[in-house]
Write the structure tokens for this entry.
Amino acid sequence: MQYVNLANNVQMPILGFGVFQISPEETEQAVIHAIQAGYRHIDTAQSYMNETEIGRGIAKSGVAREELFITTKVWISNYEDAKASVERSLARMGLDYLDLVLLHQPFGDTFKAWKDLEELQAAGKVRAIGVSNFSPSFAVELGAFHKVMPQVNQIEVNPFFQRPEEIAKLQAQGIAVQAWAPFAEGKNEIFSNSVLVEIGKKYGKSVAQVIVRWLVEQNITVLAKSVKPERMAENINVFDFALSDEDKAQIATLDLGKTIIFDHSDPEIVKFLAGYKVNA
Ligand code: NAP
């Protein structure tokens, strides 16, 4: 496994297992399978409503806690008391610390919530803190008005939404980028995209492996989700080939320059997220 060195020298596995849209019933087994497949980094959130089952999967995996990198995200409706909400997440997962906690969305009382995350980090409850779905300027603003610059920004990145300027700005500020929906959640027939299929053929690799490799080569952490053990193994098997400059130029042509999942600058999306309450 390759690691990303965060600004505070925490080592983060560059490949993570995402558990969004995995039902609580399936989560425990999915986590066990993912750890067996070699994942050591798990990405959940209070809003995914499966933290309890994540904890059970971790406990049953047989892998020592300190070998794992566990992330959760604080939902907006918990920003008023993010500290208490992270304590609840820890209790649900049966853990005494988290490796990374993110503010899930750039809306609501982010300043108050960020102070709470700083305190949790200072107290040793959380090893690294960061944000998700923030623009580069807002991520830096949060750090500039507080003690700690976000160590991570988790944003949508995939071949249809490549965001090269934003990624360069974040990385230049020492903010590590994590890619959510690396496979665009399967939209736009990504797994049969002819450019990606042809690149994969050259190396005996699948479209998913080409995408993961393309992100790893940009030092971007990949959060891939699958409930299928064979796909979990496939998505992590990317360290025995490298993309050429020509491959990367071909992939660049796929960029549509906008999200195909949801747009955080759309006022209707902002209203929807602001009104979404998480009872966790
Ligand atoms: P994704 O990883 O882009 O795509 C998941 C889809 O791809 C599933 O339908 C999965 O099906 C399929 N798949 C996975 N590997 C495959 C393979 N090798 N071949 C063919 N199909 C494959 O989407 P995502 O779950 O939305 O994003 C990944 C993670 O990012 C999430 O789980 C979550 O941790 C994080 N996330 C964060 C945010 C945020 O706001 N911060 C938002 C969304 C997601 P099967 O499961 O049936 O294999």
